[in-house]
Amino acid sequence: MLVFKKRFFILVTFVSIVIFSFLLIDFFQIKSKSNTVVVGSKNCTENQILAEIIANLIEKNTDIKVKRKLNLEGTLICFEALKSKDIDIYPEYSGSAIFAILKENISNTDDFLFKYLKKTFLEKFNIKWLNPFGFENKYVLCMQSKKAKKLDICNFSDLKNYTKTKKLNIAFDPEFSIRQEVVAIKNSYSLDLKHEIIDQSLLYFSVHSDVVDVTNGFSTDSKIEKYDLLILEDDKKALPSYIAAPLIRKEVLDKYPKIKTELKKLD
Q1: Residue 237 lies in a domain
Q2: What's the number of domains the chain is made of?
Q3: What is the pLDDT of residues 103-139, one digit of tens each?
Q4: How far apart are CA 104 and CA 95, in angstroms?
Q5: What's the sign of the alpha-carbon dihedral 177, 183, 188, 193?
């Protein structure tokens, strides 16, 4: 009987230790996970670099762990991931927020636009805009410099005669082709922007190779200079500014106020 009790005691002790060990592991896993911020990005190089800068600042200067979810396609995919808590923070652009997320058409000063976005996103989504990175990356239309000079085209208005007679081949990437920017350009300039769809990675080369005459692009893209392309002037200011800044859920910022302090270094 004594032997049985002893064995039973040993068994109970062993089982208790095992259960306690699993509970301890779960506790630390939950604690570790709860102290982690997920940084996301779009699928363009610049956005991924900005996301890496955010991640590195948080990792090196705080005790917050960082998980990266980069290359998440475009604006809408990233924003849905932010709302659904798949990511906690990612770099966004003011113009994309106005047109793609809010589906509004506002053209005003940079200060007004950014204040409007801050107020609207906090009220509507409980999401905060942090201070801008200090630059913007606009959507643009571009073409070969030599062809633009030959046809005397330097702005969006100059395209009107050529789009009416269909003498220019226009191609946009899949995301831009369905964005509000195209609608805004059409309405502001009364342009017929019938276009083909082409992969984003081939946009500039297609213009350079004379396959396409006009395409969309990004104002900070080095390939514009590489291929000697001309950025056409948006002379009627149909498109808003595209100020780059981090977007973060308010609950995440409330939990980790150090993030705001660290990212202020990027102002």
Answers
A1: no
A2: 3
A3: 887 766 778 889 999 999 999 999 999 999 988 899 9
A4: 10
A5: positive
